[in-house]
C-alpha cells in the first residue's frame, strides 16, 4: 500500500501505526448493519465525506496495527494476506502492501515480538503466515514472535465453527494451524496483559471469544476496536444488530457498553476497519447523539 496511507499516533510511550491492506473499500451499509438504509447514511452529516459516499454507501479499510512500546514490537491483526483465494474477489490475490507498510516504518519481520489476533476471521489472521514460493508451504511471517490467540476464540473454532458447514476454514488451515503446529501460539485469557501498557479486554459477540486492545501509557489511553464495530456510524446506534456478529444480541450489548464507556472520556478510539481518519473520539453532539469525531476533523 502506498506510503502516504501510513498513519501513526503517539499514546504516552506507545507509538501506534496503521498497516493498510485494502484502502477505501465501498459497499452498501447492509454489510455492517442489515437494516441500515442509504437514506439514513445520507442524513448523518458527520459521516460525510470521510466515512460514507454521497449516495449512502460505506467507506472502509482492511488494516492492521503496529504497536511500538519501550519493550515490545507488536502487530495487532494481520489482515488477509498476499496471494490468497477467498470468497470474494476483493480479497483474492492481494499484493504485499501490508509488509511494505511495515518496512516503511523501519520494522523487519524479525523485529516483531508479538502478534495478537483480536479474533480468527480471515481478515485478521492472514499475514500470520506467508506462502513459501518454493514449496507452497505456509510459514510464519514473523519467525521470532509469539502469536496470541484468545483461548475461548480458538476453542470455539476448533470445536464447532470450522466444521459448521457455514464458515470456510481455509484461512485457519493457511494462517492459524501452521503457527499452532510449530508451537508459536499462546492461548490467552480475554484480559491478558500483552506487554507493559498493552492489554486485552473481552468483547464477546462478533465472535465467541472476541477481544480488543487497550493501551495505557503515561496517563493516556487508546483502544483498538477489533471488529466489535466495523463503521463509525455504529457509535450513533450501537444497539442495532451487526451483519457479521455471530451472536447479534451479545454483539449489540458489547458495542453499547463500549460506546457508553468511552463516550466523552478523552480516550482515543481506533477503528479496525475505519477509513481515514481511522482514529478519533466518541463525543456527544449538541443534539445529544453520539458521533465519531475523527482526529483532524
Ligand atoms: Zn474484520
Summarize the structure.
With 297 residues, the chain is of the alpha+beta class. 16% of the residues lie in helices and 30% in strands.
Fill in the keyword field for this structure.
single chain, 297 residues, seven-stranded mixed β-sheet, 6 helices, 16 strands, binds zinc ion
Write structural notes for this entry:
The chain is an alpha+beta fold. The protein has a single domain, classed as Metallo-beta-lactamase, Chain A (4-Layer Sandwich), CATH 3.60.15. 16% of the residues lie in helices and 30% in strands. The protein is built from 6 helices and 16 strands. Strands 1-2-3-4-5-8-9 form a 7-stranded mixed sheet. The chain has a 7-stranded mixed sheet with strand order 10-11-12-13-14-15-16, with no helix packed on it. Strands 6-7 form a two-stranded antiparallel sheet. It starts with 7 loop residues before the first strand and ends with a strand. Bound molecules: zinc ion (ZN). Zinc ion binds at residues 121, 123-124, 227, 273. Zinc ion binds next to loops.
What topology emerges from the helices and strands here?
Layout: E1 8-11, E2 14-28, H1 38-43, E3 57-68, E4 73-76, H2 97-104, E5 114-117, E6 129-131, E7 138-140, E8 146-150, H3 151-159, H4 170-175, H5 177-181, E9 185-188, E10 193-195, E11 198-202, E12 211-217, E13 220-224, H6 248-262, E14 268-270, E15 279-284, E16 290-294
Parallel strand pairs: 4-5, 5-8, 8-9, 13-14
Antiparallel strand pairs: 1-2, 2-3, 3-4, 6-7, 10-11, 11-12, 12-13, 14-15, 15-16
The structure holds zinc ion.
Amino acid at each position: 500500500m502506498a506510503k502516504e496511507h501510513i498513519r501513526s499516533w503517539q499514546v504516552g510511550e506507545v507509538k501506534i501505526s496503521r498497516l493498510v491492506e485494502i484502502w477505501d473499500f465501498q459497499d452498501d451499509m447492509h454489510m455492517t448493519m442489515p437494516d441500515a438504509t442509504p437514506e439514513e447514511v445520507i442524513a448523518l452529516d458527520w459521516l460525510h465525506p470521510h466515512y460514507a459516499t454521497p449516495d449512502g454507501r460505506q467507506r472502509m479499510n482492511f488494516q492492521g496495527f503496529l504497536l511500538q512500546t519501550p519493550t515490545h514490537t507488536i502487530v495487532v491483526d494481520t489482515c488477509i494476506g498476499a496471494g490468497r483465494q477467498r470468497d470474494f474477489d476483493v480479497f483474492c490475490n492481494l499484493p504485499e502492501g501490508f509488509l511494505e507498510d511495515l518496512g516503511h516504518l523501519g520494522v523487519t519481520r524479525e523485529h516483531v515480538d508479538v502478534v495478537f489476533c483480536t479474533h480468527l476471521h480471515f481478515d485478521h489472521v492472514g499475514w500470520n503466515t506467508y506462502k513459501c514460493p518454493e514449496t507452497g508451504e505456509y510459514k510464519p511471517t514473523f519467525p521470532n514472535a509469539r502469536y496470541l490467540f484468545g483461548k475461548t476464540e480458538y476453542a470455539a473454532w476448533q470445536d464447532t465453527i470450522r466444521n459448521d458447514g457455514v464458515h470456510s476454514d481455509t484461512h485457519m488451515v493457511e494462517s492459524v494451524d501452521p503457527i499452532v503446529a510449530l508451537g508459536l501460539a499462546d492461548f490467552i485469557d480475554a484480559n491478558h496483559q500483552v506487554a507493559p501498557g498493552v492489554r486485552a479486554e473481552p468483547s464477546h459477540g462478533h465472535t465467541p471469544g472476541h477481544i480488543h486492545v487497550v493501551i495505557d501509557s503515561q496517563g493516556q489511553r487508546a483502544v483498538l476496536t477489533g471488529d466489535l464495530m466495523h463503521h463509525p456510524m455504529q457509535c450513533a446506534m450501537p444497539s442495532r444488530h451487526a451483519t457479521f456478529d455471530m451472536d447479534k444480541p451479545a454483539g449489540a450489548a458489547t458495542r453499547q457498553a463500549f460506546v457508553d464507556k468511552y463516550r466523552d472520556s478523552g480516550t482515543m478510539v481506533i477503528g479496525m476497519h475505519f477509513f481515514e481518519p481511522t482514529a478519533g473520539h466518541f463525543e456527544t453532539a449538541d443534539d445529544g447523539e453520539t458521533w465519531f469525531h475523527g482526529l483532524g476533523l
